Amino acid sequence: MVYQPLKILIVEDDIETIKFLNSLLKTQNYKVVCCDNANNALEWLKTNLADLIILDIDLPGLSGIQCCKLIKENSVTSSLPVIMLTAAGDEQHKVEGLKTGADDYVVKPFSVKELLARIEAVLRRYKYEGKIDKKIIFKKITMDFDRGEVIVDGKKIYLSPKEYSLLAMFLRRPGYIFTYSSIADEVWGINAIATRDTIKGAIYRLKEKLGKYADYIQPVIGLGYKWHEEINNQKQ
Questions:
Q1: Could you report the per-residue pLDDT of 90-144, keeping only the tens digit for each?
Q2: Ramachandran category for residue 128: left, alpha or beta (phi over 0 → left; psi -120 to 50 → alpha)
Q3: Confidence of residue 29 (pLDDT cuts 50, 70, 90)
Q4: What superfamily in CATH does domain 7-127 come from?
Q5: What CA–CA distance (Å, rounded) separates 85 from 78?
Q6: Would you say 15 and 40 are in contact if contact means Cβ atoms under 8 Å apart?
Q7: Delimiting residues of CATH 1.10.10.10 domain(s) in the chain
Q8: Residues of CATH 3.40.50.2300 domain(s) within the chain?
Q9: Distance of CA 131 to CAs 32, 51, 52, 61, 169, Å?
Q10: CATH code for the structural domain at 135-227
Q11: pTM
Q12: What is the CA radius of gyration of the chain?
C-alpha cells in the first residue's frame, strides 16, 4: 500500500502567513496547496479535493465566511472540514464562521502546537471517525478501539465517554502539553462549554479509575495536562 499524504488547502492573502503555514505543514508530512483569495480556491475545488481547508476570514473580495458558506452548500465539497483563521477578539466573525459550517477556528497570532493539535483533531473526526489506531498499548494499559474497551492490568475498566476520550487523547500523544482550551475542543467539542473545573473533574475521575497509573496524567501549571511516559519510583 502506497502512503498518500493528506492534502491541506490554505486560503490566505498574507504572504508571510502563507509561507509560514506552507513550511510548517510540509514538515508534518502534509501536502499543501495555497490560494491567495476565495475565488481561486473555489475554482481549484471544482476539479480537486482537499482533506482539510484552512480559511482566513478576512480575505479581499469574497470573504472567508462567504467562501465557507459556498463550500458547505455545495454537495461535492460540503463534507470537507474547514478551520477558519480569525483575528484576536473578532467574536462576531468567529460566530458567523461556525454558523456557516466551519468545523473549528484558530485565533491569530496562533500557537504552532495548538494549530497542529486542532488540525489533527478535525482530521481525526472526518478521516478516521476518532479511531486512528485500532489499539494502543501503554505498559499494562490497553485501549481497544474496535471493542471500545480499556483493559488495565488484565481487568476491564468502565469509563464514561468523556473519560474514554481523555485517555485516548493522552495515549495518542504522550509528552504533549494539552491546554485547557484544546482539551475542551477535542473532548467536549467546539460548540460545548467545558470550564477548567469541568475538565479537572473529569480527569480526577479518570485518574481514580486508572489506579496506580493515575500519576502518568500530570498537571502543567497554568496550562493544562500532559501524559508523562515515565514516572519516578512508579511501581509496576
A1: 666 667 767 778 888 888 888 888 888 888 888 877 765 544 456 788 989 998 8
A2: alpha
A3: confident
A4: Response regulator (3.40.50.2300)
A5: 19
A6: no
A7: 135-227
A8: 7-127
A9: 24, 16, 18, 39, 11
A10: 1.10.10.10
A11: 0.55
A12: 19
